[in-house]
Amino acid sequence: MEKLRTRKQYDDAKARVEQLIDEATQKGLLEPDMDNEYTQEIALLSKQMADFEDHILNILPLRKKSPLIATIEDYFYAHGMKQKDGALLLGVNESQFSQIMSGRRRISMSFAKRLHSKMGIDANLILEYA
User: Fold this and answer.
1) Which of 10, 18, 95, 102 sits at 20 to 30 Å (Cα–Cα) from 49?
2) For residue 121, with 0-12 CB atoms within 10 Å meaning exposed, 13-18 middle and 19 or more buried, which class applies?
3) Could you give the C-alpha distances from 106 to 8, 97, 118, 120, 125, in angstroms and in order?
4) pTM
5) To the nearest 10°, the Cα dihedral for 63, 68, 71, 77?
């Protein structure tokens, strides 16, 4: 596999992937589990682009959201709440709550108890991901 070494090569590869996706979609050749010339070239170029992003652009991969944080967000969405409403419900200030939601602050035992009692979040989920 050839490595991308310049930003121009990266940009060209990105444009080519977009072109391949458009063509394959129009021809019905971009369905799940398909293996054809389009999907193979897209996979190869995507791997080259990811390597370039990791080693040259220093783009960090996206962090996977904790199932506990996702559950809290789902609760807010289902109840039409904003983050400040959640902070109020759970008895913390907005700054602390924001830090908890972004993973920069650990969940305390008292906060964990409020997640369970006020939001009905499963205790096992809290114990596993807090």
Assistant:
1) 102
2) buried
3) 42, 10, 19, 20, 15
4) 0.52
5) -60
